[in-house]
Amino acid sequence: MIIDLHCHTNMSDGALTPNQLIDLAVKRGVGMLSITDHDTLDAYAHISAVPSNIRLIPGIELSSRWRKQGVHIVGLNIDLSNEAMASAVTQQSDVRLQRAHEISNRLGRLGFDNCLEGAQRFAQNQIGRPHFAEHLIEVGAVKNANEAFKKYLGAGKAGDIKEHWPAIDTVVQWIRRAGGIAVLAHPSKYKMTRTKLTELLNDFSIAGGEAMEVVSGLQVPSVTRDLAGLCKKFNLLASCGSDFHAPDKKWAALGMTSNLPDTCNPVWDHWA
Ligand code: AMP
Ligand code: MN
Ligand code: MN
Ligand code: MN
Fold this sequence. Notes:
Order of helices and strands: EHEHEEEHHHHHEHEHE
Distance between the termini: 13 Å
Shape: globular
Strand content: 5-15%
Number of strands: 8
Number of helices: 9
Helix content: 25-40%
Number of domains: 2
CATH superfamily of the largest domain: Metal-dependent hydrolases
Strand order of the largest sheet: 4-5-6-7-8
CATH topology of the largest domain: TIM Barrel
Bound molecules: adenosine monophosphate, manganese (II) ion
């Protein structure tokens, strides 16, 4: 069965509506799907019908902070009606809006005016840095999103503001209280040394995190092996997802992920 437990809709920084995403999942033969938008559950309220051949696992990707770094934690199989999660989502949305104002101010100091209004025109719902990237492309400041992140939005640049995100312990507790499993998202994307990643996984486990993404999209086998080793070492469950955002991104296509190694305990066995 094709399993994809990490993807985005236009309720955060994805290109497709929730219903379009479900349609694409059907086309790709995805049998188990979780929509994990950034800091919002709104996609779930917009789905008109879930086809009987897809098992939809309620999920979310929450922004958090570990030491001075931004870290993403996916919550899987959460109760969509949980009140603590609802207020957590409200808090995260407030942080996003405040952060957007600050990003806009900082970009303003670099000579780019009215970036908040510009970015908001691209955000259907939850605003994020990709919407600022789209605005910067539109005004001709950069050629593409990659350049926007490299120059203005990515690690260490003006628009990289992560100080307001809650600590990983807080986020893990939100997920656990909503009955879900906390999954450390795309560990290899943080570009940490192995020592640092080991420390993160140690803190994450102590906080009550129960799983990690061993596979994120199409990744090289050596990375998968390495992450599977860490997953076993910390006795975590293994998850996989594409981190799909838009149909034109080949390395993060919906339903296209590398296989989990046999040594892994899949997270879905947990709720089978
Ligand atoms: P935010 O949620 O506002 O912190 O923005 C993070 C999002 O930006 C990620 O989820 C990605 O979708 C996107 N992103 C991060 N780095 C890049 C990059 N180099 N190029 C394009 N998009 C990126
Ligand atoms: Mn994203
Ligand atoms: Mn992420
Ligand atoms: Mn994601």
